[in-house]
Structures are given as structure tokens and as C-alpha cells.
Fold this sequence. Notes:
Blueprint: H1 10-22, H2 24-34, H3 42-54, H4 60-93, H5 101-122, H6 128-138, H7 143-168, H8 172-177, H9 179-209
Amino acid sequence: MHQVPPHLPSFIEALRPIIDKYGYLAVMGLITLEDFGVPSPGETVLIAAAFFAGLGQLNIFLVALVGFLGALLGDNIGFAIGHFGGHPLIERFGKYIFLTPERTHKAEEFFNRHGGKVVVGARFVEGLRQVNGIIAGLSEMRWPAFVLFNAIGAALWVTVWTTIGYFGGEHINTFLKYQLYLTIVVIAAIAAFIIYRVMKRKKRINTKTS
């Protein structure tokens, strides 16, 4: 069990009553809501619950499990919204989750080129995490492939943030300062991989035509 910091981050203090009252249900519910576009502190409640698990108030393995299940459920609801609701639904209600037609079109094109990698990486990027299931559904990505890549991304995401929350202890504020850096690293890694694949493909095409 870790030591309680003298000054808890404001988000942990704010979420304490919810976690005290609803426990694991709060973790799963808020993550599920966040993952199909509903404004909800999904990631922050995961970190906060892991922090309280470090104090012995929750079981860290159950926190990770319900976080993982919430992420899977939320993204699959988003996938169903995109797949069955289609563009008419997004055009009508997308503005409420900041999905304009122009943004949706650009996101679809990106998904069509790099689907699986985007689903995994989007889990760590604020904004993309909330809508990647919807965009995958709109893009007509195959559901089994989406489930696989989504599960990989969710497992990695839950592992990272529950570990930070659980072991952060009195250094939790320091750890959280690096959240932005982690996001930047993930985006950079995805971009580097995509550039590598594009260059490799161009080289292969040039070799065939030469």
C-alpha cells in the first residue's frame, strides 16, 4: 500500500465520493460511456480507482478487469452506432461529440488506410479514444478485426494507467504530469510506423515498375 500524498490531485478528490459509493460499477460505467462519445471522465476514474486500490480500498485486478470490460463494451457500442446508424445519424448528432462531417470524412479516410493500427493507438489519444469505435463502424471495418485490435489497445491502455495509479502514491502528481508526454510518444510512434509503411510500399512499387 502506498502513502497518501498530502495534497491529492483535484480529480481524485472529485471522484472519491463516486468511487466510494459505486466502486467498480463507477469505473466500468464511466469508461463505457466515454468510449462511445458521451462526455465522461473514463480515463481519470480508472487512474483514481487504481490509486485507491493502492491504498487498499479496492482490488487492483478487479479495477483493471472492469476497466478493460468497460473499454470493450463502450467501443463496441460506438462501432454499432457507426455501422448501423451510418452518416445520417452522425450528421444529425455528431456535433454533440465534436464530429463534424468534415472531420468524420478525414477520419474515415485515415481509418481505411490504417485501420488496425489506429484502433490500438487511438486508445491513448484524447479525442480519438472517444470516437474511434464510431469511425471504425462508419468505415465498415470488419467487426472481428475491430474487436481484436480494440482488445489489444484496451489491454495496453488499462495496464499503463492502472500501473501509474496504483504505484504512483505520493508521486502521483509527478506521474500525471507526464500524461501529455505519453500521448505525444504514442502519436509519434503511430506516425513513424505509418510513414515507414508508406515509404516501404512506395519502394516496392518503384521496384516493380523499374
